[in-house]
Design a protein that fits this description.
It is found in: Membrane. The protein is mostly helical. It has two domains: about 1-85; about 100-155, 2-Layer Sandwich (Herpes Virus-1), CATH 3.30.40.10. It is about 60% helix and about 5% strand. The chain has four helices and three strands; from the N terminus they run ααβαββα. The protein has helices at about 1-85, 100, 115-120, 145-155; strands spanning about 105-110, 135, 145. It has a three-stranded antiparallel sheet with strand order 1-2-3. It binds zinc ion (ZN) (2 copies).
């Protein structure tokens, strides 16, 4: 009875084929699951890296903001500190104001023909007096200098360039 046997064989073969296909399907599913797992791991790693970079960037940004704020505060403070110096009439703790300098005694240098006046030397620019030059004598010590020289000096420090005696002018 060949046909039934053949049919049985065919059925067995089909069953085996189905089993094989199922096994193959299982393998394919496993491989797919494996690739999915690998993909998930890669994605997780990428996400972790991204988060790390984001955190680093955030920290850097925070530092930058803090530094910028500190810098701005410093600059603001510096400007605030500089304002009194730029003020037209400062409280004369550093030097004399132009109004105060104008009150200091001024005289025209005599002709250097006579031997006595030729010895007069400006201690600021180290040049001797010439006739017609404007000179200024300090009231405290009597030392005399070119008016332009001593004015520039006194604008920075209210003291005689030679003997350091204080130069004070009472503005009435
Ligand atoms: Zn001078
Ligand atoms: Zn002096």
């Amino acid at each position: 009875m060949a046909p039934p046997a053949a049919a049985a064989a065919a059925g067995e073969a089909a069953a085996q084929d189905g089993k094989g296909r199922r096994r193959r399907d299982c393998a394919i599913v496993g491989a797919r699951l494996l690739t999915l797992g690998v993909q998930a791991a890669v994605m997780a790693a990428a996400l972790a890296l991204f988060l790390l970079f984001a955190a680093t960037a955030a920290v850097l940004l925070l530092h930058l903001v803090v530094a910028a704020r500190a810098f701005r505060n410093q600059r603001h403070g510096g400007r605030r500190y500089r304002v009194p110096q730029d003020y037209p009439s400062p409280p004369s703790c550093l030097g004399l104001s132009p109004a105060e300098l104008r009150l200091l005694p001024c005289f025209a240098a005599a002709a250097a023909a006579s031997s006595s006046s030729s010895t007069q030397l400006c201690a600021v620019c180290l040049e001797s007096a010439r006739a017609g030059e404007r000179w200024r004598a300090l009231p405290a010590c009597g030392h005399a200098f070119h008016a332009t020289c001593v004015d520039r000096w006194l604008a920075r420090a209210p003291a005689c360039p030679v003997c350091r005696s204080a130069v004070s002018v009472s503005v009435s």
